[in-house]
Amino acid sequence: MPRSVIEIDLDAIAHNARTIAAVVGNQTARCCALKADADGLGAPRIAKFVAAALKGHPAMIGLYDLDEARQLVNTAIGLPMLILSPVRELRRDDRLYRFAATGDLHLTAHDPDNLEAIASIADGLGVTLPVHIELDTGMARGGASPADARAMIARAAHHRRLRIAGLFTHYASAETDPDATDRQRRAFDDFIQGSAHLLPDDCLLHAANTHAVFRGREHHRSMVRVGLALFGYADRATDPTSGEAGFPLATEAKDLRPAFRWASHVTHLRTVEPGTAVGYGSTWTAQKPTTLALVPVGYADGYPIALGNTARAGVAIPREGQAPLRSSAPVVGAVSIDQILLDVTHVECVAIGTRIELISDNPAAPNALHALAHQAGTIPYDLMCRLSARIERSYHLGAMPEVTPVVRGNPRLARTA
Question: Which residues on adjacent β-strands are paired with residue 331?
């Protein structure tokens, strides 16, 4: 039995792709952002499945750099790849050459020098490269100023080996600030209107990330870039405390289904007496006779230290012929490098091998991804990207497994401190 496993629901990803399509319409292309190994879920497998789910619809895969694209070379995705970071060199002996030769490798130009580097790549390889020009409308990260972007469009339009495939911007605060997002939208609008005569008819205009998709259809343009939504998350849009007025499409966002969960199991049980200090730093002390369950995951696996004495984990007790009995238990003591402790005193029938869900696919659970991210003082993306490569990934079409096999034993046979 592996120490833990990330179970990925491919049906949920397909459902989310359909939900996004219903929101933006089939005429709006979808760029599926699978950066950082699909946020830790495994880019090659996810990309291949997404490509099959989107067959016949306008779509591409968004990646950060050429190294991420090289991971997909042997995956028959059949979709163009958009590289979002600056690219300044690509050799003919690179594994990505055939994608460049077929026009399936789209590069991003961030400034005039970057555009010249891409032009040199195209001339050197003897291929026509699709280029997307990034306009900075307020992110102040990558992207060009309006004056530079306008000059870049003119330069690309007259270069025989460059094709202007896209023009885009990136919203800085789509999750939290509708006013700032709208200001960026208007700046993008103004630039498009002033440069429309230089843009080809098939140029993809894109600005919306996951949360901007649900801010309103005025953000959708001819393509949207979605990452978290594909995996079932748009927590700000579905959080009633954020105010649905800021997300006119919040109802549609609530139809998203979380597409993964992280599960482990109990490897050791013991009962401690009142006054027993637990874990590094003795940050938690038993106030009564307490049953502690040891779970073999920790911060080396990506479980944040900040969740010690804060988070809860799910407990699933199998029942013959019935759905498992579900409960939750608090994480007590400090998170160790590869272990955490749960207080399972109140949970009946916990045994060695009992399934523990560290991240639930139930958005209402106390250990849902967005709830844990909030408790850890971070964001869902960060929590997903922390998940270690040493954790087994398990992909499922159809019913997800309810529980892992339980090693039977007396749940109360435990040493007493």
Answer: 342
Q: Is residue 51 within a helix (H) or strand (E), and if so which, with residue range?
A: helix 43-53
Which residues in 274-306 are b (16+ Cβ under 10 Å) and which e?
Answer: eebebbeeeebebeeebbbbebbbbbebbbbee
Count other C-beta atoms under 10 Å from residue 322's C-beta: 7
CA distances (Å), 369 to each of 245, 366, 376, in order? 24, 9, 11
The alpha carbon of residue 303 and the mean position of all alpha carbons in its chain are separated, in whole angstroms, by: 16
CA distance 291 to 270: 6
Give the whole-angstrom CA distance, residue 213 versus residue 33. Answer: 14
Instruction: Give me the DSSP letters along 365-378.
Output: STTBHHHHHHHTTS
Residue 413's pLDDT band, with cuts at 50, 70 and 90, is: very low
Question: For a pLDDT cut of 90, what percent of the chain falls above it?
Answer: 85
Nearest alpha carbon to residue 96 among 119, 120, 123, 65: 65
Q: What is the pLDDT of residues 332-383, one digit of tens each?
A: 999 999 999 999 999 989 999 999 999 999 999 999 999 999 999 999 999 9
H or E stretch covering 112? helix 112-125
Residue 347 near residue 314, CB atoms below 8 Å: no
Closest CA to 249 of 215, 290, 205: 215
The backbone torsions φ and ψ at residue 46, rounded to the nearest 5 degrees and listed phi first, read -65, -45
- Please give the sequence-ordered ranges of beta strands (E in DSSP) within 266-373, or none if there are none: 268-272, 277-278, 284-285, 290-295, 312-319, 322-332, 340-343, 355-359
* Between 398 and 39, the higher pLDDT residue: 39
**Phi, psi (deg, nearest 5) at residue 359:** -125, 125
Q: Say how far apart CA 353 and CA 371 lie, in whole Å.
A: 26
